[in-house]
């Protein structure tokens, strides 16, 4: 599949079969994450791979009205490590580059999941503090996204419409 087709075929998947993922699939997804670009190559990210059902449920419960998150065989909690960037880039590094670093890693993981025949969803609707407490994260890490990943269950969702290129691009 061409890269464009792969990118266009990615959809947010919110229903999963109970089938678990192999270690090699999980490793591929994580390898894709750390292949992402990052400001000054500081790689201000950290990933918690949650497979434990009780932990998954606890994480899903505090993600407002999204209990389906726990039905994925794994939930990757993507954390930002702002200090990695603030040392070199100050406020801009802490508040902007760190978010961009982790966003690039997230998209790489979602695309890798599609390439492996899997699906996932980028979930930002959750309580950071509660998630950090549940996972007992060190205070320097900020959980910024939940990524449930697994084999898609049920019918494929209708593709969400996109604003056309003509509306969002200006050629000069
Ligand atoms: C920053 C961000 C936060 C999101 N948070 C959630 C979320 O909490 N729950 C959810 O179901 N989808 C969430 N999404 C997924 C979007 O709803 C989805 O990407 C968008 O509707 C386009 O659909 P598609 O991914 O199928 O193309 C989020 C996406 C992004 C980029």
Outline the secondary-structure elements.
Blueprint: H1 3-9, H2 23-34, E1 45-50, H3 53-61, E2 74-80, H4 83-115, E3 119-120, H5 128-135, E4 142-150, H6 165-168
Antiparallel strand pairs: 1-2, 2-4, 3-4
The protein binds flavin mononucleotide.
The Rg value, from CA coordinates, equals 17 Å
Q: Could you say what the CATH architecture is? A: 3-Layer(aba) Sandwich
Which ligands, by name, code or SMILES, are bound?
flavin mononucleotide
CATH class descriptor name = Alpha Beta
Structural class by helix and strand composition: alpha+beta
Jot down its keywords.
globular; four-stranded antiparallel beta sheet; binds flavin mononucleotide; 6 helices; single chain; 172 residues; NADH Oxidase; 42% helix; alpha+beta
Could you describe the 3D structure shown?
The chain is α+β, with helices and mostly antiparallel strands and 172 residues long. It has one domain: NADH Oxidase (3-Layer(aba) Sandwich), CATH 3.40.109.10. Helix content is 42%, strand content 14%. It contains 6 helices and 4 strands; from the N terminus they run ααβαβαβαβα. The chain has a 4-stranded antiparallel sheet, sandwiched between helices. Helix 2 (23-34) crosses helix 4 (83-115). It is globular. The two termini are 32 Å apart. The mean pLDDT is 97.
């Amino acid at each position: 599949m061409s890269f464009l087709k792969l990118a266009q075929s990615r959809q947010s998947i919110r229903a999963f079969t109970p089938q678990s993922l192999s270690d090699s699939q999980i490793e591929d997804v994580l390898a894709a994450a750390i292949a992402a670009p990052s400001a000054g190559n500081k790689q201000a990210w950290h990933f918690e791979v949650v497979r434990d059902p009780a932990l998954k449920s606890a994480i899903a419960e505090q993600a407002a009205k999204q209990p389906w998150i726990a039905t994925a065989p794994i939930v990757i909690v993507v954390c930002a490590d702002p200090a990695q960037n603030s040392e070199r880039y100050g406020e801009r590094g802490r508040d902007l580059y760190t978010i961009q670093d982790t966003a690039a890693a997230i998209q790489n993981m979602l695309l890798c999941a599609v390439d492996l025949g899997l699906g996932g969803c980028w979930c930002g609707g959750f309580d950071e503090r509660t998630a950090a407490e549940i996972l007992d994260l060190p205070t320097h890490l900020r959980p910024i996204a939940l990524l449930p990943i697994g084999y898609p269950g049920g019918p494929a969702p209708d593709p969400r419409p996109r604003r056309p290129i003509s509306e969002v691009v200006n050629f000069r």
